[in-house]
Amino acid sequence: MDNNITRSGSLPYEQQKMINAATELHAKGLELHWLHPKSKRPIGNGWQNHAKRSISSLQSGYRQDYNLGVRTGVWSQPTPGMALVVIDKDVKSTDPRHAMEAQAVVEQLLEYPQLYPSTISGRGNGSSHYYALADALKCPQNQKIASSKERVQVTIDGKAVLRPAWKVS
Questions:
Q1: Are 152 and 101 in contact (CB under 8 A)?
Q2: Which end of the chain is more exposed for a tag (fewer CB within 10 A), N or C?
């Protein structure tokens, strides 16, 4: 389909798809922000300190080719009282033992990580993101969960941390 074809006469089709996705995710309780094109860098400064944006503010701030980011932790609660957390398994080595070490930490956190939505990330060496919900009242500030000489890191993105003793669902 031609990317310049407009629906409802206002925005090109691909841009309207992005606005529609943002609107749907916002309605589900996620705190969103725009990212620079082809980047994970948020638009503007201090995004992590702002109050939750209204959907009209989010929609009016969109520009062509922006990416969409999610502010995790207490700011994004798809279920009231349950915060969205992203477990970032970052394997910085090509040694398969380090990927296994990082996976063991994820399994301590999630017990059955294969049951959670996940994405492959990084260099294709075992790095991935797992998405889970945690009690919003038990999400303190960022913290590294595990590290082995900087070859392996398991952290929680977005100002939320999950410790092995915490229950996730």
A1: yes
A2: N
